[in-house]
Design brief:
The chain has 411 residues and is an alpha/beta fold. Strands 4-10-9-8-7-5-6 form a seven-stranded mixed β-sheet. Strand 13 and strand 14 form a beta hairpin. The structure holds pyridoxal-5'-phosphate (PLP).
């Protein structure tokens, strides 16, 4: 298994201070990046540096420090627009995480644009954050919620998807671009083509996908795309909603407050232009500065190298794990990213994770915020290993050896 020569994972690891630690006397094997990724020195330095030398509130001060801070914060919007190939920087709305982005959509698009009687389509492999906001909308606004079933391989049933759209009632499709449980990458271009044929708009949950591959919203031709900063090596507290400008302009605001208005009287307030209409209150200034550094870091490595590294790791992991007796890999999608769920015969996922942790190996165990998917799989939980730019083949080997050891306890 060879990795592209320009990509040196050991050099990359030196960019992440946290990785040099030992846990329980062993080198730390961190295989939980899909829950939140570790941060490179560049992100840490950008945030600390801003606090030490360049910090004030943004968008309001007429003084030097506020102007510099506004420039540094707004540079993040430019970086996100370039990263996603948005037509215009004003199409980038900052939220607090993708959960915030989807709640914004359920309020502003769901209550403001969709009409009672229309439907929203999600899929059978969504994270709770792309289920619950739509349920709240369904219950308060008479919007129907439809769910695309998944196949036994853990892929979307695309025929069933088209059937759900045929009556023309669907106003919005909101589907994950990559499953945080199965690793499945969904056929985004095809989803958009089919949805648009029946007049539905499309939003993707890109929380996992944007970490693993280049996302080009113009090439995808989707209408909205949301993701969260902390999984792309950035800080917590900042998320992104990209939307087509003409759609964002039609949508009413979600939260009201400072920064999102043009004028306020007791009788009536008017809204600022997009994206500020959706950004009430003091934003996550330091987090925006940190996210800009994270995007620069990812762009510096390049998505080609990043994707090749993760594809090689995933292939290696699937090969190694499939030799372990009694271990089942959950989800066999053709197109998949570096997230692998598994179950061990006779052992609860929490016990597997605890016994791996004793060996210094961090994986996640539980329902992964996807309880309906677990029900579909007839499982109450899985253990999950997920990879980042800093993950090595040796760590995958350590996982396999660790799982062999766990198995010997339960035999
Ligand atoms: C992590 C995750 C989310 C939620 O992200 P937050 O940062 O908690 O808002 C949503 N969808 C997917 C696919 C995820 O992996």
């Amino acid at each position: 298994m060879s990795i592209t020569t320009s990509f040196d994972v050991n050099r990359i690891r030196q960019d992440f201070p946290i990785l040099s630690q030992t846990i329980r006397g062993r080198p730390m094997v961190f295989l939980d990046s899909a829950a939140s990724a570790q941060k490179p020195r560049a992100v840490i330095d950008a945030m600390v540096g801003a606090m030490e030398t360049q910090y004030a509130n943004v968008h309001r001060g007429l003084h030097w420090m506020s102007e510099r801070t506004t420039e540094a914060y707004e540079a993040c919007r430019d970086a996100v627009a370039t990263l996603m190939n948005a037509r215009d920087r004003s199409e980038i709305v900052f939220t607090n995480n993708i959960t915030g982005s989807i709640n914004l959509m359920a309020h502003s698009y769901g209550r403001g644009i969709l009409k009672p009687g229309q439907a929203v389509v999600i899929s059978g492999m969504e994270h709770h954050s792309n289920i619950v906001p739509w349920q709240l909308l369904r219950d308060s606004h008479a919007i129907e919620l439809r769910v695309v079933p998944i196949t036994n391989y853990g892929e979307l049933d695309m025929e069933a998807f088209e059937d759900l759209l045929r009556d023309g009632k669907v106003g919005l499709v909101s589907i994950t671009h990559m499953s945080n449980v199965l690793g499945t990458v969904t056929p985004a271009e095809r989803i958009v083509r089919v949805a648009h044929k029946y007049g539905a708009k499309v939003m993707f949950d890109g929380a996992q996908a944007i970490v693993h591959r280049k996302v080009d919203v113009q090439a995808l031709d989707c209408d909205f795309y949301a993701w969260t900063g902390h999984k792309l090596y950035g800080p917590t507290g900042i998320g992104v909603l990209w939307g087509r400008k003409e759609l964002l302009e039609q949508m009413p605001p979600f939260m009201g407050g400072g920064d999102m208005i043009s004028s306020v009287t007791y009788e009536k307030s008017t809204w600022a232009q997009v994206p500020h209409k959706f950004e009430a209150g003091t934003p996550a200034i330091l987090e925006g500065i940190g996210l800009k550094a994270a995007i620069d870091y990812v762009q510096g490595i390049g998505y080609d190298a990043l994707a090749a590294h993760e594809a090689a790791l995933t292939e290696h992991a699937l090969a190694r794990l499939s030799t372990i007796k009694g271990l089942t890999i959950i989800g066999q999608a053709q197109d998949r990213g570096g997230v692998i769920s598994f179950a061990m015969d006779g052992a609860h996922a929490h016990d597997v994770a605890t016994l791996l942790d004793r060996q210094g190996i961090a994986v996640r165990a539980g329902h992964h915020c996807a309880e309906p998917l677990m029900q579909r799989l007839n499982l109450d939980s899985t253990a999950r290993a997920s990879f980042g730019v800093y993950t090595t083949h040796e760590e995958v080997d350590a996982l396999a050896t660790g799982l062999e050891r766990v198995r010997s306890f339960f035999k």
